[in-house]
Amino acid sequence: MKVHLPRAVLFLHAFPLSREMFAHQFEALEREGIPYVAPDYPGFGEEPALPGELTIERLTDHIVSRISALGIRKILPVGVSMGGYLMFDLWRRYRSLLEGLVFVATRAEADTEEGRKARYDLMEKVRREGTSPLVEAMLENQTSPATKRNELKMRQLRCMMEKATPEGVVATLKALAERKDSRDILPSIELPTLVVAGRDDERITPPGVVRGIAEGVKGAEFVEIEDAAHLPPFENPESFNRLLLNFLRKIW
């Protein structure tokens, strides 16, 4: 039987992690009695890979079908990195579902030719060698100095990343490489919008890049979180949870 919820927070995780990266947010929302849903992407966490080619649009449809099956009528997505790309597609095609947007450590731009080639090269490497090279690179590039000093957090990240299947990684890398540029739709976004960057994110989405989303969306709030790089909800959950709960209180 469906449980019809008027609204829920939708957590969309970063690549190549899983819903587990939001464990601290789950605890915070449960204390406040705020409903949430947090799917794993196909091939990540506990979710098996999908057969056939993957696109951002197919991923979005997959997630929306899950939301619909739960009877959720309105969502407020919190998307980290890749999760932000899905949020742009949600705005394009499912905007009636949305009540607000929280973009975290993501960008509106499509990949450059150089970036696209790097993803295709990485796909071939994962096909040959498995996900180990990807895991090592992501552990280095996605984390702040403070996170690197925290052995428990680094072990947790490694465990999440090692759950990703080679099939899921390869299919998702192609979807990321071929995604649309979303800068043109920023002025059309007319929802309460929070944009968050990790102050120490120097390699993937530096704060100046993330800020571009806030500059394009009228009335958006932009915040940098210290002691965090590409994964602010995981790296500095205390600061992130304060931001998120304050934002939710304003809207709901």
TrEMBL record:
Keywords: Hydrolase
GO cellular component term of the entry, any: membrane
InterPro entries linked to this entry: AB_hydrolase_1, AB_hydrolase_fold, AB_hydrolase_sf, Epox_hydrolase-like
Domain of life: Bacteria
TM annotation in the entry: none
Residue ranges constituting the AB hydrolase-1 domain according to the UniProt record: 8-237
GO molecular function: hydrolase activity
Entry-linked PANTHER family: AB HYDROLASE SUPERFAMILY PROTEIN YCLE, MONOACYLGLYCEROL LIPASE
Protein name: Alpha/beta fold hydrolase
Organism this protein belongs to: Aquifex aeolicus
